[in-house]
């Protein structure tokens, strides 16, 4: 997608001539979306939709309302990534700044991702506080782009640490848990291992409004179910860095599959899990399953090496790993996660839900983003019949190009 093809900066205009793919089987046929001040103000058929712009009785008569013709391309809600460490050559852990978030957003637009949780993995208390401050400032500037920050760690099980720096993995302090709760307006999600946290930790975080996600954990199935009962509602990168499904001990994977409520992110890159496991997870979980990238520095670039968690990471053929082969995030993009999932055999409407409304519901922002509905942010992905990206609408700004 060309960066210089910005074709609409109007505060009020209409998108026309597109094929909607919302993921909702009951979505009515629409061919017109009116956008006003970065939000959807009306949707419907051109001949029926009413608008009061400049006193017009209908879209047909609203001659002063600019129309952006999408040429019959497919339009879906913008993708939402709940686990994004970095992309476009930057990493949130390495540079906790507004500039980093801007680069991540601009890179995301090339893959249809219009909203994301910047993800800070296991680090110092000082870095956590800085990440919260930076994210708060960015949310104030761009609420359509960042619903909050995802703190992945540092309260993890060292036995399932993955690439996380063991020197920073620790038990939670009461002071930091209080800090998390006091900043629940910014901290959207916290990934923790329930078996290493003091009793009451999950309850306190969840009651404050933070999504508690089980991850980097060696918990038993019983411990994972206790965590869900305490308020955990999500699991981080299903199958990865967690106790597996066994015949006698179902582990965290079994607890997630057996639940009727807990959701999970899943990395559909062909490296983190098999396509069979992707299909099985979706068959069992349906709309509780969410596509995430867990992307790092090289996503959207051709970088061969980068530094993550103090280690040199090698990127080759879409796989990111350290010298001993430990996976270190991914180079996945959201549009690639979508196409991979479709090629794996999951029905396209279900895949779109996994990338949009399922993610929004998981962090309780479904009234702001994730669907094509009046009042939501005007965030859309635009692609052709082969799911090749052709543009985006981000906060009402249209960008089209090959």
**Oligomer kind:** single chain
CATH superfamily of the largest domain: Metal-dependent hydrolases
Which percent range describes the beta-strand content? Answer: 15-25%
CATH topology of the largest domain: TIM Barrel
Rg of Cα set? 21 Å
Distance between the termini: 5 Å
List keywords for this structure.
about 400 residues; alpha/beta; Urease, subunit C, domain 1; TIM Barrel; 2 domains; 8-stranded parallel β-sheet
Provide an overview of this structure.
The structure is a single chain. This protein is an alpha/beta fold. The protein folds into two domains: 100 residues, Roll (Urease, subunit C, domain 1), CATH 2.30.40; 284 residues, Metal-dependent hydrolases (TIM Barrel, Alpha-Beta Barrel), CATH 3.20.20. It has ten helices and 23 strands. It starts with 5 loop residues before the first strand and ends with a strand.
How are the secondary structure elements laid out?
Blueprint lengths: L5 E3 L3 E5 L2 E2 L11 E5 L2 E6 L21 E4 L4 E4 L1 E6 L1 E2 L2 E2 L6 H12 L3 E9 L3 H17 L7 E4 L21 H9 L4 E6 L8 H7 L3 E4 L6 H10 L3 E2 L15 H8 L4 E4 L8 H11 L3 E3 L13 E4 L2 E6 L2 E3 L12 H10 L4 H8 L1 H6 L17 E4 L5 E6 L2 E4 L2
Parallel strand pairs: 2-6, 3-7, 8-11, 11-12, 12-13, 13-14, 14-15, 15-16, 16-17
Antiparallel strand pairs: 1-23, 2-4, 4-5, 7-21, 9-10, 18-19, 19-20, 21-22, 22-23
Summarize the structure.
With 402 residues, the chain is α/β, with parallel strands linked by helices. The protein is built from ten helices and 23 strands.
């Amino acid at each position: 997608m060309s960066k210089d093809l910005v074709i609409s900066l109007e505060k009020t205009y209409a998108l026309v001539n597109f094929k909607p793919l919302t993921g909702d089987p009951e979505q009515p046929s629409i061919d017109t979306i009116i956008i006003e001040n970065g939000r959807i103000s009306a949707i419907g058929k051109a001949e029926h939709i009413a608008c009061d712009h400049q006193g017009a009785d209908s879209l047909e008569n609203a001659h002063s309302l600019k129309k952006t013709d999408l040429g019959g391309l497919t339009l879906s809600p913008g993708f939402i990534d709940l686990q994004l460490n970095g992309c476009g050559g930057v990493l949130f852990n390495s540079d906790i700044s507004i500039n980093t978030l801007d680069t991540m957003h601009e890179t995301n637009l090339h893959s249809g991702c219009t909203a994301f949780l910047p993800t800070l993995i296991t680090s110092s208390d000082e870095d956590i506080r800085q990440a919260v401050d930076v994210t708060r400032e960015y949310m104030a500037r761009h609420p359509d782009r960042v619903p909050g920050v995802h703190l992945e760690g540092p309260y993890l099980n060292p036995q399932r640490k993955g690439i996380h720096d063991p020197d920073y993995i620790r038990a939670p302090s009461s002071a930091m848990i209080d800090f998390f709760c006091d900043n629940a307006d910014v901290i959207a999600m916290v990934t923790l291992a329930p078996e290493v946290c003091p009793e009451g930790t999950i309850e306190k975080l969840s009651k404050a409004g933070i999504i508690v996600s089980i991850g980097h954990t060696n918990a038993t199935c019983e411990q994972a179910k206790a965590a869900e009962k305490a308020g955990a509602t999500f699991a981080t990168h299903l199958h990865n860095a967690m106790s597996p499904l066994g015949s006698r001990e179902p582990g965290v994977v079994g607890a997630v599959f057996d639940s009727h409520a807990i959701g999970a992110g899943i990395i559909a890159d062909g490296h983190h899990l098999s396509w069979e496991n992707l299909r099985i997870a979706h068959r069992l979980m349906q709309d509780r399953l969410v596509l995430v990238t867990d992307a790092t520095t090289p996503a959207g670039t051709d970088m061969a090496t980068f530094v993550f968690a103090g280690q040199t990471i090698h990127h080759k053929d879409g796989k990111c790993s350290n010298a001993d082969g430990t996976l270190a995030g991914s180079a996945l993009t959201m549009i690639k996660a979508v196409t991979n999932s479709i090629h794996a055999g999951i029905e396209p409407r279900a895949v779109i839900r996994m990338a949009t409304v399922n993610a929004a519901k998981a962090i309780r922002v479904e009234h702001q983003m994730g669907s094509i509905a009046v009042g939501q942010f005007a965030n859309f992905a635009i692609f052709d019949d082969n799911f090749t990206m052709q543009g985006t609408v981000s906060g009402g700004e249209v960008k089209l190009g090959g």
